[in-house]
Amino acid sequence: MSEEEEQEALNPEKLLGVYEGGRNQITGEREGQGENHFPNGDIFKGEYKKGVRNGKGEYAWKDPIAKYIGIYENHKKEGYGVMTYPDGSQYDGNFHDGKRHGDGTYTYPNGDTYVGEWANGKKHGKGTFFIKKENSKYIGVWRAGQIIRGVWQIKDGSYYVGKFEKQRPNIEGRFVMVNGNSVTGAFKEETKTIEVPIEKEKKETEEGQEEEEEQAEPQMRKVEKITLRQFIPTGFSQSTPETIQKDNFIEIIPGELDLPKEEEKKKGEGEEEEGAEEAAEQE
């Protein structure tokens, strides 16, 4: 590599793009208002301090198209901001260390909305998830992106209150009908193994007709099949206005948000949530 080629490779504009704006008169670092055009077409307009993004700013991604308008601290999103993702979804709320953290509202492309608490980029704490198509909602306690306890309010006015697993009612809970009738019970799910016979092979005879190969016993192959979950009632009662009000008052139980050991391990290994959403945030 020639000296000229080496200087070109080390050219800050080639690595960081073209910057126009304020600089510290002593250190020469970016400071105050500035605008940076990156080589990939991204643009940042906002405040700098000690050479990095600090304060109010606007970052626009060219490919994929996305935009963040909000506060930066030491080059990362911090405090209040609005992030619009490539798929059209949008987060309006608080950030910490570059991730969704604190109170915030996430609106999905299909119109679904989550309003509530976040931690480390995931739904975590108390929150409400509105499902637009079904005109229903989940109100409850979320842990690492999943609802674990709360209320599922159904379109017709009935609701389920209890525990959740994998985004659906599970383990134990209670269904309350519109007329106030209440059914308490638990979910049961079984995995059964069934055997299905293998079709006999057919072979052509001398006359050209197909003939099934004779076998002493039909061969079987095993297929695992998960049956539908069943809700097993254990009790019936009549709800009162007081019990209905209590059902919809959600408070976090001490220790409820602690992650199970296997989830803590995944977190330690740097498991990312919703990678497609975060892809645009690589600045």
Name its key features.
Histone H3 K4-specific methyltransferase SET7/9 N-terminal domain, two-stranded antiparallel sheet, repeat, elongated, mainly beta, 2 domains, Putative radial spoke head 1
Question: Can you put this structure into words, describing what you see?
Answer:
The chain has two domains: 13-104, Histone H3 K4-specific methyltransferase SET7/9 N-terminal domain (Single Sheet); 110-198 and 220-251, Single Sheet (Histone H3 K4-specific methyltransferase SET7/9 N-terminal domain). 11% of the residues lie in helices and 53% in strands. The protein has helices at 3-9, 12-16, 241-247, 261-268, 275-278, and strands at residues 18-23, 30-37, 43-49, 52-61, 66-73, 76-84, 90-96, 99-107, 113-119, 122-131, 136-143, 146-153, 159-165, 168-176, 181-188, 191-197, 202-204, 210-212, 220-226, 230-238. The protein contains five helices and 20 strands. The model is unreliable at 1-11 and 268-283 (pLDDT under 50). With 283 residues, the protein is mainly beta. This is Putative radial spoke head 1. Residues 207-216, 270-283 have a biased composition (Acidic residues). Residues 1-45, 198-283 are annotated as: Disordered. Residues 258-269 have a biased composition (Basic and acidic residues).
